[in-house]
Amino acid sequence: MSAPASGFSAPRSPKAPVDWAPWMVLISTIALSFKGISAKYAYDAGMGVGMVLILRFVLAAPFFWVGERLLGAGRPRLPLGWAEIRPCILAGVLFSVATYSDFSSVQLIGAGLSRVILFTYPAVILIIGAFSRRTWPARRQMLAFAITYLGLLIIIVPSVGLVAVDVMLEGVAMSLLSSVTYGSFLVYSQSLTGRLGSARFTAISNTVTMLMIVPFALAMGGDLTIPNTTALIWAVVIATVCTVLPFFLLFEGIRRWGAEKTGLMTLSGPALTIAMAWVLLDETLTPLQLIGFAVVMAGVGALQGVDRPLLRLLRRGRRAEA
């Protein structure tokens, strides 16, 4: 005998909460990808690397602390002591080196090529992970390293005749230095965002970076003249759209998702920058360099590994675009 029908339907199981971490990292990657383009426009408007760096962090610092206050309102705060500030200083040092090397490489070899080399930093993240676990990377990973750097050679060699050899070598070295220090910075930041909160860590570490970059840029000399209106507008864009916004999103994504998965999502960065450079700056890569770019992306992607939830996320995105 069947149960009498009732006027009420069975309650539906609640939907799983949306994981916003991938979208935070993706939006951050898009904003950061525009940094090289904005820097190129600022250089073309007559501003030097030193002044771009100074304005980037001087203009960004107040926004970081306003964001930290707004996002941290009503939440318990860990008292700040030397034990908390000291690791933020080290993080700021790493990011300062990565930033200066990055902006210098853009000026030397262009936005597209420098992005391709910089985005080998997920490999750095995995190497650090292997050392921390005291295990050698798997053979597949070591092969992927070889593939990645073969791709770099394919990209670099055709550019040797277009740029002076010493300039090319300096630009490549700067990009690689930025890759190593930025990858180290992201790994080191992961534990700090858990302890301090992503907004607080972002504000402190970027303030440390400002305190280091400003005197360093002044000591380096170069073109430190007051920028014109056009250059100043691009400096504001770099400080807000390409620094404050993506950093809050990036470190919250790292806190929720981890450094390795975050590194995987940011692999879209070089493609985005190259596309922007092609549309906005008339920068191009030769067919051979495009092959090298594909080899680099394949190698770094193999190093990272792709987990099934992320694959499902990317597939859903492709279906939505269709």
UniProtKB/TrEMBL annotation:
Residues 22-156, 171-300 form the EamA domain. This is EamA domain-containing protein. Keywords: Membrane, Transmembrane, Transmembrane helix. It is a multi-pass membrane protein. It comes from Rhodospirillum rubrum (strain ATCC 11170 / ATH 1.1.1 / DSM 467 / LMG 4362 / NCIMB 8255 / S1). It holds the Pfam family EamA. Its main location: membrane. GO terms for cellular component: membrane. SUPFAM superfamilies: Multidrug resistance efflux transporter EmrE. It is found in: Membrane. It comes from the Bacteria. The chain crosses the membrane at residues 20-39, 45-66, 112-131, 143-165, 171-189, 201-219, 231-251, 263-281, 287-306. InterPro entries: AA-Vitamin_Transporters (IPR050638), EamA_dom (IPR000620), EmrE-like (IPR037185). Belongs to the EamA transporter family.
